[in-house]
Amino acid sequence: MQNKWIYILLTLASVITYGQVNLTLDADKNEYGGKDIVNLTIVLELNGSDLVQQTGFQLPDLSKFNIIGSGSVTNTVIDPATNTLITQKVSRIALEPKKKGKIKIGSVLVTVNNKIYKTEPFDVNIRDIVDKRSLASNTSNEVYLNMEIEDREVYQDQPTIAVLKVYSRNMDNLRKVKNIRLPQQDNINVHPINFAKSEIDPSGNGNMASQVLAMFMVFPNEAGYVEVPGVSASVSSYSHKNKIVSNKVKLNVRKLPEGAPESFKNAVGNFNVSVYGTSKEKPEAKKPMNVVVKVAGEGNLPDLELPKIAASPDYEIFAPKITTKVSPGTTGMKGVVLANYVIIPNKSGEISIKTEPFAFFDPQDRDYVDVGQKTLAVKTFSHDQIMESRTTVEKVNEYTNNLLETVNTPVLKTTSFKVKEKSKFHWSILLTNIAILLGLFIVYLLFKTWQKKRTLVRETVSQKPLGSVAETEKEIRELMKTDINDYFGYLENLKDNNDYDKFFVTLEELDQEVRNQYFKGSVTEFKTFLEKHKGSSVAEEYGNLQQRIEMEKYSPVKSSEGIEELLKTIVNLYSQISK
């Protein structure tokens, strides 16, 4: 009997360690107002390389809602502790309730390794439904904002990228959305990436067109669950202006690891510190000099606490002037922050200007880096030493400058002399001009004669019959056709060298070249063309690929496996399109 229980326990342990499937369905909250959007999050986690998802997510009955948007992302990592492959698929659905009261949301089903998994149903409470005014007194023209944040689990002061999208059943309303105001809150720092609007996607979910309005970085500055407030905007029409607000997003902000150095304040990213003087003249005691503390790198650069110049009896320090030069990067804001100090040395001789110790946390290595103190060695001189070290020319120049500044000197006036030319007519110049005109006239006559002969010869040659418009367009397309295999090889080299910025620039050139082959300028026109000539499946795959490229391009952390999988999809799809 005892051996039987041991056998059962060992069997269960092997099954648990070999593979595990976790499927969850959650809403962002339990109770919603009449204007709130219900956001559902479906998470499927597969722990083990032998687990295969055989079906997509089978959604419950959502007839009591209007589906206004959805999206999904798949992440694959290997747990270094157990060497286990972990695949996580996250899908989000934005719903608009049609009626008030308690609404039951059923189970989501998925099949993995011939076994069906499902989530537990739950209820959401909808308060009174408020009739919304549309821009043209028509509820079908409503405009909705949706804020999407993929990476919702970050370290404190580590950025995550937010994408703001607008949805409407009337595409004209998308052009009326203006005055976007990013969220502001004490426990987050927000920095815009760009406000460039994307092309309108007419094939949105729920018969609603969509458009990307803005992208921005969110830096949570405290640990725990942090709620990012909604983004507001205005929708203007001829008669009135409406204010719309997006959904809120909750972040799980992890606390920084223990063991931080004493010099660590709030710097998260990768930085380096330097200190240098800007004056080209010899530093003089009791005279001001400029010293710059420079912090360069990428991370929460605009919001970090800069290392100050340490106090010393050898010099006097004044408050610095801060200059920030940053731009959006892949893992945060990158650039430099300069602190320009005015320092007055109290003595002549050798002095050391030191910064305070500085340390930062690198989220990629998950470790602290102690930069330490930076020192600027300065040799100052007394006023007498400065005067003695000057050369004779420098002394004369200083004396002359003082004289010109303090003594009123008379103004000396000079007279300009002009050489008077004799009035004489040049016959040789006149004859030369006449000869040039005659020569040009003869050349013109010869050219007209040659042109007439060429026209006669061209008329005698039989003309080649013209083909149809389709044949002509095909010939032009063959001439314009580019060997996309060259692009594939170049993208492979960029991927191997981890040059992701140039990878995505080359990818845009490839997409432009393929669209030019079919005389389509925009992505929307090309997608419509593919649906008509290549089939709806190819067009849908092309649209999904464009969205995936945008997400990978602005992802703060790029994995080589994800880029390699993206490249395989690009090669397969574009090879099929360019046949």
Main attributes of the structure:
single chain; 579 residues; alpha+beta; Immunoglobulin-like; 4 domains; 7-stranded mixed sheet; 4-stranded antiparallel sheet; 11 helices; extended; Oxygen tolerance
Describe the overall structure.
- This protein has 579 residues and is of the alpha+beta class.
- It has 4 domains: 20-126, Sandwich (Immunoglobulin-like); 143-254, Immunoglobulin-like (Sandwich); 264-384, Sandwich (Immunoglobulin-like), CATH 2.60.40; 481-578, no CATH class.
- Helices cover 29% and strands 35% of the residues.
- The protein has helices at residues 2-18, 171-174, 383-388, 392-406, 427-460, 469-480, 484-496, 500-517, 523-533, 536-553, 560-577; strands at 20-27, 31-32, 38-47, 65-79, 84-97, 101-105, 109-112, 115-118, 122-126, 143-149, 153-155, 160-168, 177-181, 188-194, 209-220, 224-228, 232-236, 241-245, 249-254, 264-277, 289-299, 315-317, 321-328, 333-345, 349-354, 358-362, 367-372, 375-380.
- Strands 20, 21, 22, 23, 24, 26 and 27 form a 7-stranded mixed β-sheet that branches. Strands 1-3-5-4 form a 4-stranded antiparallel β-sheet. A 4-stranded antiparallel β-sheet has the order 10-12-15-14.
- Helix 9 runs antiparallel to helix 10 and helix 10 (536-553) packs antiparallel against helix 11 (560-577).
- The longest helix has 34 residues, at 427-460.
- Mean pLDDT is 80; it is low at 12-18, 131-140, 411-422 and 461-467.
- Keywords: Membrane, Transmembrane, Transmembrane helix.
